[in-house]
UniProtKB/TrEMBL annotation, chains A, B:
InterPro entries linked to this entry: PaaX-like_N (IPR012906), PaaX_C (IPR013225), WH-like_DNA-bd_sf (IPR036388), WH_DNA-bd_sf (IPR036390)
Protein's name according to its UniProt entry: PaaX family transcriptional regulator
A Pfam cross-reference name: PaaX
Source taxon at top rank: Bacteria
PANTHER family found in the cross-reference section: PHENYLACETIC ACID REGULATOR-RELATED TRANSCRIPTIONAL REPRESSOR, TRANSCRIPTIONAL REPRESSOR PAAX
Species annotation: Parasedimentitalea marina
Domain Transcriptional repressor PaaX-like N-terminal: 25-90
Location of the Transcriptional repressor PaaX-like C-terminal domain: 202-244
Example of a GO biological process term: DNA-templated transcription
Length: 267, 267
């Protein structure tokens, strides 16, 4: 029985691992964001090793990534004797919190209204470039931005209008959902569809490894496209099916208990 | 009494004449468009002279302009003995007909809906440039056009959307109603406001001179701006007041009878 759980785990982790595109520091952020985002959450070095090495990542690579994350202010580490624990800094928690709702949205809220801001060649360009730094704005072209919600009360040098009843040409759909992203999404859908329902009796570290990789790969799809109604999707976009399968799997792999991860009873 | 009619006429024609900006061939088109646009309408050379010379235009200049208009296919002339008559060609009538409804619209139909077409930097640009040749389209900037009515059923490579609830920056209003046009419109409003109510007993040629100049100057204002709701107007735009006064005057100077103009009984 243990054997068959381990076999299922090996197969699944093999499908989910993507060694070409797997930056270790980024995987660690996915892990903390998924399992240890609250102020007092911490993960031991031993648990990190148990969760991450099955992805084909060496302990030395984990140490290098942790060093980088400390240097960049994401993570702090504490040591007592040979044991170490790691936790997100306030900065790290803020960064994670900023995207958590988008990553974990099962049924993303699609904008009921959209507006458009248009610059002329001259002074408005600067205003438009500023606007495009805000969340909820997408460039249509050099002088035009699509914005979520009703138009802002003041739009200064920009021509603003509320828009509906769109005709959406292929170039715009491909700009919103670039081919490379559509391909990544399709590849992830293929992977998560191949993973069969998890067997009972997986240990906490195994659940954590799988959740981390699923969240990690989904994060790299979901944060790179805007939430827009289906008529904005290119015909090849499989994001809706991919999201469904991702959350079905995450529901079947419920968040492990951090205490169990810290003091493994199951190895 | 005749003296006072003539005095009023001299004053009014003096106000309306704008020798700097008065191309004779263009004045003649205004005249035909106003008074002789139907297939069998014609105006004698003598009548043309009686109508146009009071504007400060010499008979020689009228002959030169008629020559040009014949060469350009607008007008044909017939001669019998020393008398000549002139009439619009089919081409000339078509050209006049294409703009008559806009020139004489007392209460222009404002668009209930507007749409916007947006090109990307690439292929859509050509499609947009084509669209901008159509009536009912106005350039917003190099890659964006404002269109009257609902969006077209097919818009090919263009992103199309229906727009409302506009915020309109100064640059866009000035682009629609350029300062020079706003100034011309204001100058015409000042002139037509200074002209007092026409006295009774003006002769047909006097009425024709005044109508021609009013239509001529109004034509050069009305055809150079789009019919858009007041919130698209710059604060200095006086087009609404100008139109009102123009039509009040035209109503007080009803179209003279062409037969009377041909065979003057009143000189």
């Amino acid at each position: 029985m243990i054997q068959s759980q381990n076999q299922w785990f090996e197969t699944s982790i093999g499908l989910l691992s993507d060694p070409q595109n797997q930056r270790v520091w980024s995987v660690i952020i996915s892990l903390f964001g998924d399992m240890a985002q609250r102020p007092n959450d911490q993960i031991s070095g031993a648990a990190l090793t148990r969760i991450i090495t099955p992805m084909g990542i060496k302990p030395e690579a984990i140490r290098v990534a942790l060093h980088r994350l400390r240097k960049d202010g994401w993570i702090e580490s504490a040591r007592s004797g040979r044991a170490s624990t790691h936790y997100l800094t306030q900065y790290g928690r803020d960064q994670c919190a900023a995207v958590t709702s988008r990553i974990y949205a099962r049924d993303p809220v699609l904008p009921q209204k959209l507006h458009v801001l248009i610059a002329d060649g001259g002074g408005g360009q600067e205003a438009l470039d500023e606007v495009l730094l805000l969340p909820g704005y997408i460039a249509i072209n050099r002088t035009t931005a699509l914005g979520y919600g009703p138009k802002p009360k003041t739009s200064h040098d920009l021509l603003a209008l509320e828009a509906d009843n769109f005709s959406l040409p292929g170039w715009f759909k491909t700009q919103l959902f670039p081919t490379e992203l559509t391909n990544s999404c399709h590849a992830l859908l293929k992977v998560v569809s191949k993973i069969s329902d998890p067997p009972a009796g997986l240990n906490s570290a195994q659940v954590a490894s799988l959740r981390t990789l699923i969240v990690h790969r989904w994060r790299r799809v979901v944060l790179r496209h805007p939430d827009l109604p289906p008529d904005f999707h290119p015909p090849t976009w499989r994001g809706v099916a991919c999201r469904d399968r991702v959350f079905t799997l995450l529901d079947q792999l419920p968040l492990p208990n951090l205490a169990e991860l810290r003091d493994p009873v199951d190895v």
